[in-house]
Design goal:
- By secondary structure, the chain is α+β, with helices and mostly antiparallel strands.
- 40% of the residues lie in helices and 24% in strands.
- The protein has a five-stranded mixed beta sheet.
- Strand 1, helix 3 and strand 2 form a beta-alpha-beta unit.
């Protein structure tokens, strides 16, 4: 998305949250820490797409009223946490497929995180909402490796 290129990750995440809130009526609270370095294009796009997929899952399945999104930089990692107050689910149970579709959202998020050297953790239980944590290592800058 052009907003990612022009304004950076924080602005793109904020725009996605605002758009979601306007479309669904579910409140989204976003807290972004100023990162010490810009992530690679792949890493920024990964975090943006994971947020989009997580919000899509909230809309389809969670019946949530509130979502919080935080972007922080603990040490040598960037961490994105998406948390909702919805109905929750058992993350170990394979999702039921409807008419041959669905069930790949969480797998796709995990694959995206792995592709850029990161990890994705899902914490949820029935009637307890869901929390998705994505951690991506900061890449050394190109000038530091030359």
């Amino acid at each position: 998305p052009s907003i990612l290129d022009q304004l950076g990750l924080g602005a793109a995440l904020g725009e996605a949250g605002t758009e979601f809130q306007e479309q669904t009526g579910v409140s989204v609270k976003l807290a972004c820490t100023q990162l010490t370095t810009r992530l690679s294009v792949d890493a920024e796009l990964t975090l943006y797409r994971i947020l989009q997929e997580a919000l899509k899952n909230v809309e389809k399945h969670a019946r949530a009223r509130h979502v919080t999104v935080s972007l922080t930089q603990p040490g040598a990692f960037v961490q994105l946490v998406i948390k909702d107050d919805g109905v929750g689910f058992d993350p170990d149970q394979r999702p039921a497929r409807r008419k041959g579709k669905g069930g790949l959202g969480l797998l796709g998020m995990r694959e995206r995180a792995t592709y850029v050297g990161g990890t994705l953790k899902i914490i949820s239980a029935r009637r307890a909402g869901a929390k998705i944590e994505v951690r991506i290592p900061l890449q050394p800058s190109a000038t530091a490796t030359n």
